[in-house]
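Holo prediction — NAP.
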Amino acid sequence: MDVYGLVGNPVGHSLSPPMHEAAYEALGMDAQYVTFEPETAAAAIAAAKTLGIQGLNVTIPFKRAVLEAVEPAPLADRIGAVNTVDLATDPPTGYNTDAIGLLRAFERHDAELSGTAVVVGAGGAGRAAAFALADEGLAVRIANRTVSRAEELAAAVGDDVATAGLDALPELLADADILVQATSVGMDEDGSPVPARALHADLTVLDAVYSPVETRLLRDARAAGAETIDGGWMLLYQGVAAFERWTDRDAPVEVMNRALRARLDGAV
Ligand code: NAP
């Protein structure tokens, strides 16, 4: 049997097990997806190698610390966070499929990735979004509550990346094409870091928050005439990218999406 899994703390409410196990079942794979709450990321990687586990997803609080225990792929190295580990290589390779998942979520919605993108947030999700969108050739602006974190991220992403505090969002968004909301605001609460008056019909808005799947930002964006993409799509495609990396097979995307959506809707 092939074994894959998730390490983090907590992992009890993760939606990854049902999503991956639906894929194994659909493809008739003899595989299982298990969750662990280890003491350290390095201990989890060492144990996984000993146990013959083929691949691990990594979530909070280990996405950064796990870099010590893997060889990061170039994009994960630049982002400074790993959420997918391939244990078939020696040393294990660390990938950031949040970045890939974000781009594939836009692609799935036929969103044109060009022009100017505003990323709100400079934590793990914000970093993944900023690097992914800059690599696609977009002009990136980063807004964060703590401006120094936005500045640090902007310097790492490249030249000409504008930064600001959240109060500057109306100006930053006025002529923007893409908005990625990558703070934890809106998670398990009815809040948004983006004032509704800053939203407009020329925007495509992706909210990384997926619990609830229908956030206040997405409601405000739709009311302003913007295209919207909920955080479930990014979650789906980071899982799809991990599955494909581990198995070298095409993921059964619609099966995984159905398994996820069944839980996302219930999780609101
Ligand atoms: P993180 O590294 O802890 O970063 C948190 C971010 O939120 C920081 O930019 C922080 O600003 C900001 N923030 C927190 N509380 C705030 C508040 N009250 N007002 C304004 N800004 C606030 O977290 P993360 O891993 O990036 O995750 C962020 C969100 O993205 C979470 O909801 C997570 O579930 C989601 N996510 C979704 C996916 C997906 O696949 N859909 C993947 C990854 C993450 P400061 O720097 O000022 O503290």
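READOUT: The first strand starts at residue 2 and ends at 7.
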